[in-house]
Amino acid sequence: MSERNASLEPFLLLARSTKGAAAAKVVLDATAANGVYVFSELLEQPNIKALQNDPSYDKHYRLLDLFAYRTLSDYRQSPDSYPPLTAAHQTKLKQLTLLSLALQHRSLPYAQLTEVLQVGSTRELENVIIDSIYAGLLRGKMHHHEEVLHVDWVSSRDLARDDLVKIQSSLNNWSTNAQTILGALDEQIARIRSQNLVEAEHNATYQKQLDQSFKHARDEQAARRSEKSKSGGPKYSADWDDEDFDGHLASGERILPGRGDHLPDPRAKKRVRD
After folding, report:
1. Which residues of 33-46 are buried (b: 16+ CB within 10 A; e: fewer)?
2. Quick one: average pLDDT of 70-99?
3. Is residue 203 included in any domain, yes or no?
4. Would residue 273 count as lying in a domain?
5. What is the residue range of 154's domain?
6. Which parts of this chain are annotated as the region Disordered (predicted)?
7. By CB atoms within 10 Å of each CB, which of 54, 109, 132, 190 scores lowest?
């Protein structure tokens, strides 16, 4: 059991064994108690649910519903629908209202909070925020000069049935968007793989052509050297042995297409043989 639910446990035990006025007293105590910020389990207790059909205590049931699912503005619309609130009730209801706002917005201007929480000064507002942070309801930073609260993390409140429908709809939208994004990523990955395959084939074809050009040039060089050797003529500096030829090819020698000649790198040194 979580710490938040554990704080409610004593009131759940009392609700199981009390009815009428005693059950109404459990509601008043639970909604004012320190550390208790979830109430849906208490609402589901049979003795507590029976209060909504009792004219003497139906306001207490609405009070519990107010603290579970609603905000300070709901209370101010119809304060006579609830029993009188103590200072502890009002403070907690402000904290729960702040929690609801933080669940919807990550940046909350002081002007908005002052109006919604019905506080009289910036200092009073910041006290509500600080108490909420210490209570573990949210984490964030107050920017006094900018007059804004930036929320980093926020706890959850009890979920009403209408909230569950909204959450389901949001999750369905998220799932649809996620599938769309994944489909787009799969298409992009397939396109990149196809491009890489085409490029690899192109490189392989180019390398094959280059090897054939090298072989053709080597064969012509060997044939020319063989003819000169048979004729007994001197070997001029333009003649190259195999090692020279390979070295010059590696250093940038260009094969002249269609003529069978080659142009050596001008930086290469030629060797003259007798």
Report:
1. eeebbbbebbbebe
2. 96
3. yes
4. no
5. 3-158
6. 208-274
7. 190
